[in-house]
Design goal:
ANK repeats lie at residues 54-86, 87-119. By secondary structure, the protein is mainly α. It has ten helices and no strands. It is 61% helix and 0% strand.
Length: 155
């Protein structure tokens, strides 16, 4: 009963608040790893690949914040794992920047492309190398998805 009331109030608040606040509330749920609230929003019509003002998708924000339950939910609902924000970064790059091997593995398993190059010429692999994230670099190279030679060919 309390969940139903909370859901109803949340949906009403989201509807009345306007466009920008609607996304702020949803992005807050993602940052807090609140998969229950996010599931309710998705079931109420929220687009899985909703992005904020800088182009970060819900999945990118989940990746940036270590929100594993939310990331799994978004991927199960068809989130674009290789979407890029204004800087060309992907969710995989965000996980790499955090040094989050668990999120990196989850995204790779979901089909993340480690060879995507962002606006400053980096891939997830070069980010991992630059921050001495050897465990992540090993994950990224495990399937020959991205090696130094492969990166050189892409440039």
């Amino acid at each position: 009963m309390k969940t139903t009331i909370f859901t109803t109030l949340f949906i009403i608040l989201v509807s009345v608040s306007g466009f920008s606040q609607k996304h702020l509330g949803v992005f807050d749920a993602v940052k807090l790893n609140d998969s229950t609230t996010l599931a309710m929003c998705l079931n109420s019509g929220l687009k899985t690949n909703t992005a904020n003002a800088t182009g970060n998708t819900l999945l990118m924000e989940a990746s940036k914040n270590g929100s594993y339950a939310v990331a799994k939910l978004l991927l199960a609902h068809g989130a674009k794992v290789n979407a890029q924000n204004e800087l060309g970064n992907t969710a995989l790059m965000e996980a790499t920047l955090r040094g989050d091997a668990q999120m990196t593995a989850l995204l790779l398993h979901a089909g993340a492309n480690a060879s995507i190059i962002n606006s400053v010429g980096e891939t997830a692999f070069t980010i991992a190398e630059g921050f001495d994230q050897t465990a992540i670099a090993k994950l990224l190279t495990a399937g020959n998805q991205n090696t130094k030679e492969g990166y050189a060919k892409l440039r």
